[in-house]
Amino acid sequence: MTTPDLTQRFLPYFIWFLIVVLTNYFFSIFSKKTKSTGKILIAVFLPVWLIITVVKIVCDIIYLNEFNIYPVAFIGQLIENIPQVVIFGGIAFFLKYRKFKKPI
Length: 104
Prior knowledge:
Elements (H helix, E strand, L loop, with lengths): L2 H31 L3 H28 L6 H31 L3
Helix pairs in contact: 1-2, 1-3, 2-3
């Protein structure tokens, strides 16, 4: 197996791991600033969604040699990343929020 094959094979797992790590990181930052669930949810998911989109575009440029970047491609990548961020980020957010709201 060559390097691009391994990269393409393990890239989704890396993206999922990155979504969970970024969700936990942004949750720990924004939960100190506000206690509102809606504000925390938006403040966590938007940056995670944008960062994951940029990472995937950079990986496409590096490993697939797609040097043509158009706004339509960025929008398509945003749409493609919504389910991943909602599923994996949502699970991480739910677990972190449940621990955050647990009475002391």
